Amino acid sequence: MKAHIKNVRISPKKLNLVAKMIRGKNASEAMDILRFTNKKAADLLYKALKSAVANAENNEGFSRDQLTLDSLMITKGIVMKRINPVSRGRAHRILKRSSHVNVTLKSI
User: Which of 21, 52, 72, 81 stands the most exposed, by the fewest C-beta atoms within 10 Å?
Assistant: First the structure.
């Protein structure tokens, strides 16, 4: 009853802000919270949670009401390094961060 999303183009700090809201909650309650949260991170976490719930329903035979979030782990993914040219021939670095999302559910 797991779901993984790798190399999501959003920083882990932004994802963790939304992930803190749903950690330890019931799966259906967490999906409701994510559906009405107005952030890009909420959409990405909703997809991961929906996939984990679908895996539990189809593979294990659990219903959505029996499931709760066991762990929701956000880890750092690859960092794309770009430069922004500035005056006097110098360059400032731009770090385009990405994240990995791991969702694990357990039955009550």
Answer: 81
State how far Cα 101 lies from the chain centre.
Answer: 4
Q: Shortest CA distance to 94 belongs to which of 80, 108, 107, 106?
A: 80
SS3 79: strand
Q: What does the pLDDT look like over 41-74, one tens digit per residue?
A: 999 999 999 999 999 999 989 999 999 999 999 9
Residue 25 pLDDT greater than 90, yes or no: yes
Return the half-sphere exposure (C-beta side, CA atoms, 13 A cut-off) of residue 53.
Answer: 19
Q: Give dist(CA 100, CA 108) in Å, integer.
A: 26
What are the tokens at 80? Answer: 């794309």
- Token representation of residue 45: 């976490």
What local confidence, expressed as pLDDT, does residue 56 receive?
94
Query: Which residues are registered as beta bridge partners of 76?
Result: 99
